[in-house]
Structures are given as structure tokens and as C-alpha cells.
Amino acid sequence: MLKRWLALLYLLALAATGLGAIALWRLRCEGFGCMGVGIGWLAWGAVLYVPALALGSVAAQLTPAQAPGAKAAPLALKVQLLAGVGLLVYWAVVRWG
Q: What pTM did the predictor assign?
């Protein structure tokens, strides 16, 4: 029964991850540097991105083909990986570029 809803649950988690990233992207540095923004991104990765990525990996493997969101889950997983790599590259370029 749970396998049937894994893909839909993953897509909802991915939407929350995207909304969290947009909210953090809009934050600006205040007071004593950008420590708060950095902590926010660290928390975003640990609390939203990585668990959603794990859920997506499981959902892409275990969700039956006729379940809701089953066709979208593998594509969404690839998009999530590309977005994560893109953010990492952006951070590296801004940090050391």
C-alpha cells in the first residue's frame, strides 16, 4: 500500500525542497556576515535535500508503474540531482571564483 504512494510523497517533498531553496536564495546577509544564510543552507541540505533525495531514490525503484506520480518520479530525481550539482557549482564559483 505504501509503495503506491511513494512517488507522490517524493514529489511533495521535492516541492517543499524547492520552496525552501527559493526562500533561502532570497535571504540577504545581515549583521555579522553571512553566517545565518550559511546555516540556513546547511539545514536545507540536511533536513530537506538529502532526505528528499533518499526518498526519491527509493520511490524510483519501488513504485509500481500504475501508481500516481510513478512516471514523474525518475525524471524529478534527475532534476533534483542536477539542481543540487548546479547549486554546488554556483557556490564553488562564488566562493573561489
A: 0.86
